[in-house]
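SAMPLE LOG
Freezer: B-3
Tube label: C17
Construct: single chain, 213 aa
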Amino acid sequence: MTAPIDDGGGKDEGADNAALHHEKMARKKAARDRLMAGKTEARGLLIVHTGAGKGKSSAAFGMALRCIGHGMKVGIIQFIKGAWDTAERRVLSSMGDLVTFKAMGEGFTWETQDRARDIAAAERAWTEAEAMLADAGTAMVILDELNIVLRYGYLPVEPVLAAIGRRPARQHVVVTGRNALEPLLAAADLVTEMTMVKHPFRQGVKAQPGVEY
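STRUCTURE (predicted):
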């Protein structure tokens, strides 16, 4: 059977599809422009990264790099990690006056096996954190693993939230760690929960440089 000959009078479906796409995107852009026109406020945010999935601290350090790229000063306190030599600590500590990086923990509670020692380490770290939170020259303060400290009761949550609430108006605070407490979630402007779908650790794969540290 001979195929019909296109005499040029047929419908150009490609052109119609392009026109429909253009019209759809124009409507979407107009709606987006209306939405963005109402977003005029700029202020410091309280950001919480929590959940069982991997990437909470990594996401926070990515935000630190954004600040550095804008010439903004960042303060980082690690409440659990201390003696561990991590690549992010090496890199961020090399940024000169733009980054103050203090790893003040002594490891997880199952490593220290000493609650009083864990509380003392958390209190020392919090003293440093309070100084950063009071510094108007610090654009972002990252309180890495603070959720773990609060969950175990090494620090009371009320004075922590009070200090965060007293911070300079344009300062951002990022808190990381599993099992964020409800009062912190309620106070936060942005909460992201990392969900674990798969993890190589369950297949017997150990932590590796460039991925975990």
